[in-house]
Amino acid sequence: MKTTSICCAGRTIPVYALDALVIGTGCAGYNAADWLYDLGRTDVAIVTEGIKMGTSRNTGSDKQTYYKLSLASDEADSVQEMAQTLFSGGSVNGDTALAEAAGSVRSFMKLVNLGVPFPCSEYGEYVGYKTDHDPRQRATSAGPLTSRFMTEALERSVQKKGIRIFNQMQAVRLLVEAGKMFGLLALDLTRPGADGLTLFACPHIILATGGPAGVYDASVYPCGHVGMTGMALEAGAKLVNLQEWQYGLASIDFRWNVSGTYQQVLPRYISVDADGVEREFLLDYFDTPAQALDAVFLKGYQWPFDVRKVQGSSIIDLIVHHETIDLGRRVYMDFRTDPTGLDFSALSEETFRYLKNSGALTLTPIARLAHMNPDAIELYRAHGIDLTTEPLRVAVCAQHNNGGIAVDVNWQTNIQGLYAAGECAGTFGVYRPGGSALNACQVGSMRAAEHIACTTKPALFAPKQLEEQVERVLTGWLVDALESLNHCDVHSTSYTMRREMQKRMSAQAAHIRQPEALQALCDALDAQLQHFFRDYRLVSPGGFAQMLRTRDVLLTQRAVVSSMTLCAQQWGSRGSGLVLDSAGVACDGLRDYRYRPPQEVGMDQQVVTEWNSDGISSSFAPVRPIPARDSWFENVWREYRTRTAGLQ
């Protein structure tokens, strides 16, 4: 790594010149840097806003799942079958599905060898269980903190190698010329305002910045996790399938999915109005208590909202949305008292059998939870919430974006030298098996590192050329951004604009979508972005970083709404998006909710979103099929030696 400085927009900016840069310190980011180093590209560094931040380290669920090829018992499986499972989720490219399947075992065993405690039998079989959208028993788990264990193990490996980590460094702009990467502008958050401007001269960048977490108000993403999808969009990267998300019930005072046993112990659902008046509300929407409780039970393993289940378990999400958004009430799950009308003998056979086999036909949800999953109680107690004495506030929250930045089979974007791995990469579509995101982040970051190592040469640093490139590409944008520092306003609040749009997104552009409201959102976001730097008022120079985050969120929101609008107009309800229509089908228990019935349409297409001279727009593109390939050993061996010649 070399250091120098350049002058741009009247400011002297320090420069770090290196071969490859990774942005993000989650599972994907650490893995990318670790693989680059092992593959001989040791002039590598990591940039992160905070080592302890991010989704990989700070989220989990009742049983956080890692999806892999079957590695136990007599379960028949193959790379082709796993690829087909991923591909059949709809709007998925076949080549990335094949790569994720093929790289599954290699990536999983690396984590095992690094010490992640995935369970195995006494004979060394890594047993599995069945998860959602999974025809096999491919899922495994190291417990509710699986991704944290992964992150910590990979971090230890990176630290042993001495790979430099630039902590408290916010990426703000990718520098691209003629379709090729040449650098990154970042903000050193330890220095106030624009004094923190720092440039990384680098032709190979792997984005591992996580999903677009700043889009919504109701979110299970960790506080402080924003994502930087807008930065990639502004640089010219294409985005794909931004309309496809996972939404579900989560606690919001401490952000955590309330899936699994949290639902299967049958808590009481209550809502509270502005005057503090409490109401147990599920009985208002079902004919019998047993119907309500069976739907709650199914939410345990049908956690993501699904338009195909709006007359089943997903009706719970719609009811909670109605209580919180339409009626403005606060909703809680109460484990202290049994729900009104609970009669075990009246429950469905599935619900009753589960509770009986679990030895949980006892009074009160908290007693059932303590019997089946005591760690679930301790988890909340460790974060200041005692489920034995207080209810748990919940909402329908965004959890994972199945879309993201469009990538090829090597996880390279349409910009040469720019890669995306982890949730920021758009390798999933309408549906995906539970836990497949953790496999994707490991395989994608590995393949990006391999592609850099096998097909490129280490960068040669040319200071004069760099200064000329920066002058051509960055000056105008930087001058506009710095202009905001000239009109600080002590009476303004820099966060207001973002919060307003996040709330509108949760109400109108999450799992409930209405075409006219989506268009109004597009117009509002366009108005805010048109003269953003001119209109934005900083509270102080220290708000410069916050301002740039807000702009990135608005860009991302605009892209998300663009893709949702096209999908709603052309395809209607599907996946995680219920499209309202006054002439549509009435929803049982919620007669005011009329919607377009779900259709399995567009499964062989993707929605591509990009920013060009006409603004942000979306269009359809066909998916890439699963490749036919030659499996004759001698041919594969010859091709392998040619492909990996750069490693010799």
From TrEMBL:
Cellular-component GO terms for this entry: plasma membrane
Keyword Oxidoreductase set for record: yes
Cross-referenced Gene3D superfamilies: FAD/NAD(P)-binding domain, Succinate dehydrogenase/fumarate reductase flavoprotein, catalytic domain
InterPro entries named among the record's database cross-references: FAD-dep_OxRdtase_2_FAD-bd, FAD/NAD-bd_sf, SdhA/FrdA/AprA, Succ_DH/fumarate_Rdtase_cat_sf
Pfam families to which the protein is assigned, alphabetical: FAD_binding_2
Keywords, ordered alphabetically: Flavoprotein, Oxidoreductase
Superkingdom of source: Bacteria
Stored PANTHER family: SUCCINATE DEHYDROGENASE 2 FLAVOPROTEIN SUBUNIT, SUCCINATE DEHYDROGENASE [UBIQUINONE] FLAVOPROTEIN SUBUNIT, MITOCHONDRIAL
Protein name listed in UniProt: FAD-dependent oxidoreductase 2 FAD-binding domain-containing protein
UniProt organism field: Butyricicoccus pullicaecorum 1.2
